[in-house]
Amino acid sequence: MIPVIFLMFVCIFLGLVKIETTLSDWMMIVFTAFLSIFAAITIDEGRKDRRKDSLEKQLVNLYSPLYAMFQRAKFGVDDSRNDVRNLPTSSDIPKSFVLDDREVDRIRQVLERYGHYLEPSEREYLFRSLDMGERESIMPKARPYFRYRDIDLRPHYDFVMDRLKKMKKELDDLTRNG
């Protein structure tokens, strides 16, 4: 109510409205002010809801699956993965990221389906990095694994982890303030 009274005094002071204005004119001014405030609040809430929906879709469809697969590739402790990770390397560069063939295919599917959420350069860089894995098997009929150098996948892991943290914080802020 205070903003409406303030608005009326401003209108009178600036000469936009004469003091002799009728009651119906004042009601029209007050109604218009309330309607404008309501519209502004509704538009702002709609924008927040769209941003929350977009963040949730990105988290659920892109960043969370990529993070889970990179986390498993780097820190997964199943026996086969550890055996592949511990195979000797021909260089001094560590190869501690290990993905099985299904995980590599799943990352590619996620990127093809939801890669539009990423910058095109980041998406292409990740596709190229996935092609750099060395195919390894510890037994002839075992599921093939791909071993990646840290310098190939670590930047993507760090990028996804950073984006995941920022997006979760932004989503929390929008949810808390919304």
Q: Can you walk through the features of this model?
A:
- This protein is mainly alpha-helical and 178 residues long.
- It has one domain (49-177).
- 70% of the residues lie in helices and 6% in strands.
- It contains 6 helices and 3 strands, in the order H-H-H-E-H-H-E-E-H.
- The protein has helices at residues 2-13, 23-75, 79-85, 101-114, 120-130, 150-177, and strands at 97-100, 134-136, 145-148.
- A 3-stranded antiparallel beta sheet has the order 1-3-2.
- A hairpin with an 8-residue loop joins strand 2 (134-136) and strand 3 (145-148).
- It is rod-shaped, with a radius of gyration of 28 Å.
- The two termini are 23 Å apart.
- The mean pLDDT is 84.
Brief characterization of the structure:
By secondary structure, this protein is mainly alpha-helical.
Radius of gyration: 28 Å
Helix content: over 70%
Report the strand count: 3
Mean pLDDT value = 84
Strand order of the largest sheet: 1-3-2
